[in-house]
Amino acid sequence: MNVGSLFQPASIAVVGASRAPEKIGHQVLVNLRPFDGTIHPVNPSAEGEIFGREFVASVTEIDDDVDLALVAVPAPVVPDVIEECAAAGVDAAVIYAGGFAEAGPEGEDRQDRVVETATDHGMAVLGPNTSGFVIPGDGLCGSFASGVEEVPAGGTCVIAQSGGVAHSLAFQTLREGRGLSAMVGLGNRATVGFPEAIGHFDDHAATDAIVLHVEGTDRGRELLEASRAADTPVIAYKVGESDVGAFAESHTGALTGDHELYLAGFEQYGIPTVESTRELLDGAAVLGDGPLPAGPNVGVITAQAGPGIIIADRIQRSGGRLPELADATSEEIAGILPGITYAENPIDTGRPMPEFGDVVAAVAADDAVDVVLVNELYEDALGLPVDRMRSLVETVEKPIVFATDGPPADFEDDVAALEEMGIPVFHSPERAADVVSLLARYGALADGGRQEPNDERQEPSDDGTADSTGVNADV
Amino acid sequence: MNVGSLFQPASIAVVGASRAPEKIGHQVLVNLRPFDGTIHPVNPSAEGEIFGREFVASVTEIDDDVDLALVAVPAPVVPDVIEECAAAGVDAAVIYAGGFAEAGPEGEDRQDRVVETATDHGMAVLGPNTSGFVIPGDGLCGSFASGVEEVPAGGTCVIAQSGGVAHSLAFQTLREGRGLSAMVGLGNRATVGFPEAIGHFDDHAATDAIVLHVEGTDRGRELLEASRAADTPVIAYKVGESDVGAFAESHTGALTGDHELYLAGFEQYGIPTVESTRELLDGAAVLGDGPLPAGPNVGVITAQAGPGIIIADRIQRSGGRLPELADATSEEIAGILPGITYAENPIDTGRPMPEFGDVVAAVAADDAVDVVLVNELYEDALGLPVDRMRSLVETVEKPIVFATDGPPADFEDDVAALEEMGIPVFHSPERAADVVSLLARYGALADGGRQEPNDERQEPSDDGTADSTGVNADV
Predict the structure, then answer these.
(1) Which ranges are annotated Basic and acidic residues under compositional bias (chains A, B) (predicted)?
(2) Which of A113, A260, B389, B456 is deepest in the core (most CB within 10 A)?
């Protein structure tokens, strides 16, 4: 199956291309405008041009090789369109419409026909029941959703079972100015599922971390194996802990019940999991940009005790450890700050002071510490210890995360300087603690968790092929 | 005890006033500049003027009545200063310095002297070991922290055990453009603790919600009773679930161990609790601005299934309920949207469409529903259902919360219009679900939880007087 034709096409056919702005077949063309390959609008009822390209009646009438068909037609017509695509030698397709495996026996039959055709011809089919995909760095927006073409290029690849969640994640990165390397809504996963998407984007130069949104899949073991095999860090967000039974089943078949099994599977295969879209994106940003943690041990340095207690509490509840520091480290800190407020880990300096950066450096250099979390509310007279951190990151290869806050106008230069040198900055104690806890779990799994699994019972069971994508294409 | 003199002073003495910018006694004067009452800089070693006000050697030499002394001197000098304040008839004081009950026997003796003097004279003493307080609407910044004077006036009153956490919360509201009615860091609570602060701000016209950050207090029952007695909605964030023993004890005495007891106490007294600073502020904003929920039943309407599943899952795990809708409601929705994707609660419309607002209105009108959560990713061609919501909020008196996201420039007008009519908007499914879960818990407790407690064993036990404030004033 040629997944490369799906995600790196040179020529695209839009089947169901339309002049009517409310149609998906119109919005897809709008979103494709920055694409610098060939585009063929396909619609048997249309004539003339749209956006300067000639309508054709069928993909079979296109003379060029078409790599990818974006199929924006109603569900009943889709199986025939996919057969035409196969006959025309199209390598890949995206099917936006809902009304397939998630929608009763008739829909299941439709999906079976699509899968059979695609399998026979080795076609990579994304969807049905998806909003599509976006590769910002290539100016390639294969989604009909408005606005998602504005998401900037970044390092995180989103692979979401739900197109709606994929778009929510994309807009969150847009809001934070981070961007994505790719965004994929898998939908009903006709032939392109988690394993194929993970495999492709593991080799994608622009991708430095892969995040998964998982509701449930019939290929759980392949998902876990592909995640473990990836050289790129992978984080997973498994939803559906509580009984969302009737609702989820209407979208995902037998979603409920396997949640714990999935979590155990991810742990066994060395893939850390999170519990929100924000943790997923924060974790990807930190794992993608910075040095990877070698273990679960967190050194915390705080200039204010209250947020430090919140942070220490939260890290310990979320899989991180606060190790004892080496005697030499404690002595060094006592030398830097005689009479320090609290010299165990977490280190509490009581207030910011000029020596604060030296204390951070002493903790970071301790072999017992795999990840460093610094909490310091901004004080104008001192600023953040930017210069000391700049020399520190040149000598210590460990993730360092800052939690700080203050009047944005006053400290944004210091924050930008820290982020520039690979030190991510978060603006609440919990948000910093959550991302550091994720780093700690990643480090723990890296340390000992990514061995061959020996307990096949941990593998998630089959649970149907239909799923939620957040999109029922109204075409 | 005259807490009014503390929080609404007409004249202030700054003891330890200083020309040296790195001194707290300087920063306090800087932060007081917008205050339109009288200010007296007090320092026996200084002469002349600072910021146009004449230095005096002692509070006893001030001719006017002084309501409030801001005491910015080192700990060893503080007990004598408090005695001078008492002798001079000063009603209230803030003590910034650390080195009291949190700092061993010598510090405990110092705090005992302060408490004795204050109690004898009915002085309201905030601190020691605090960064102070801020009342943005009065231009009154009784904190030495830089930047906190920029926090705008809003409706939420923060009462935090830790000055550091108080400032973190204040900066978060600044970042979100929300602001505060008041911010108080209690510190060691010499004579002003949770009960006094809650009582005062319950009567504060600018305050529409009170949020508490609690580590541990020796007056747990009074805290609970003051919270229950308040007419203003109160939400609590109790920290210290995991063993943060040695660190916490260095700041709060015997913090650990009582966490579950506190949570049970809050529940028994009808005070909902949260697990992060963000939930605390989001909850206060929604409870303070909008109608209060009458029960725990949430109606969810989503235009995308994937985020809807995340929301339904999260609400059910966090104390909310998704009730069955009345038959009449289901019939109405079926009439609005024949062939709707999923017509139970959560309602899933599959995609946004022009009738989406009517579906929301049908759910909101159902008597089974106490709180409404709407999830709809923005689509340019439709916008958000602003007009329909405007007519809805005139007829239905229930909290309505939106989760949406999209390109900020495209939809900020719609978002502003919703917020203008009292519908708060959040930009991730989890954040909206968390605030709605808080509303549901508040509604559940309002429904049946705020009766007289009948089990005194639920009362948190004494656990010391010292605590973390995040500040050890370096004066």
Answers:
(1) 449-460
(2) B389
